[in-house]
Amino acid sequence: MHRILLLEDDANLIDGLQYSLKKNGFEVDTVRSVHAAMQRLADMGKYDLLLLDVTLPDGSGFEVCGYVREKNPRIPIIFLTAADEEVNIIRGLDLGGDDYITKPFKLGELCSRIRALLRRAGIAESSGDTALVCGDITVDLLGSRVLLGGVNLELTGAEYRLLCLLVRNANRIVTRETILNELWDGTGDYVDDNTLSVYVRRLREKVEKEPSRPQHLITVRGFGYQWREVPA
Q1: What is the DSSP string of the chain?
Q2: Full-prediction pTM beyond 0.85?
């Protein structure tokens, strides 16, 4: 059974979330402040996914995300945001969040997106392959590490999954629709197209010497993206 840490201070929303998540087979630990979340995350390894509200009485879910990403780049993180917080949404993704859902939301949709992220994380961990090699990039699937020109890249879980998808299809165009469906396991209809643009930009900043003139991660306008093999 997967265990989720829920950081939320709205008592009414907490009741509904706890009921729905437990009914869907998840164990849920709930905290209502950044301070309490940090205390629980001293034992970060016992959680499979984090649900983080953005605005808390003593700070922000962004603080928790930043703390987690320094120690664990892979654990899936979903932000719970207000519908008018577009700037916060972009900030959360930039900090390493994997997904977000805007309030008010349908509990069934949230559970679907949680399962999608957990499945994608599980597939990455249990892949039968041990490595992907494409020109100057090597993806160590067992160690969940990426080396570019021999240098280790610090990637979040979403960035890692996106890179794996593109490298597996090196020199071929991968449509935006395919990426959304693959990364969100068929729940791509729920994901704002702008979210993918943020992931691509963030990944490009890590893999390109000049992000404004990419050599690896190429945009194919009107279609999607392509990972171009560069000799090692």
Answers
A1: --EEEEE---HHHHHHHHHHHHHTT-EEEEE-SHHHHHHHGGGGGG-SEEEEESEETTEEHHHHHHHHHHH-SSS-EEEEEETT-HHHHHHHHHTT--EEEEES--HHHHHHHHHHHHHHHHHHHH-S--EEEETTEEEETTTTEEEETTEEE---HHHHHHHHHHHHTTTSEEEHHHHHHHHTTT-GGGS-HHHHHHHHHHHHHHH-SSTTS-SSEEEETTTEEEEPP---
A2: no
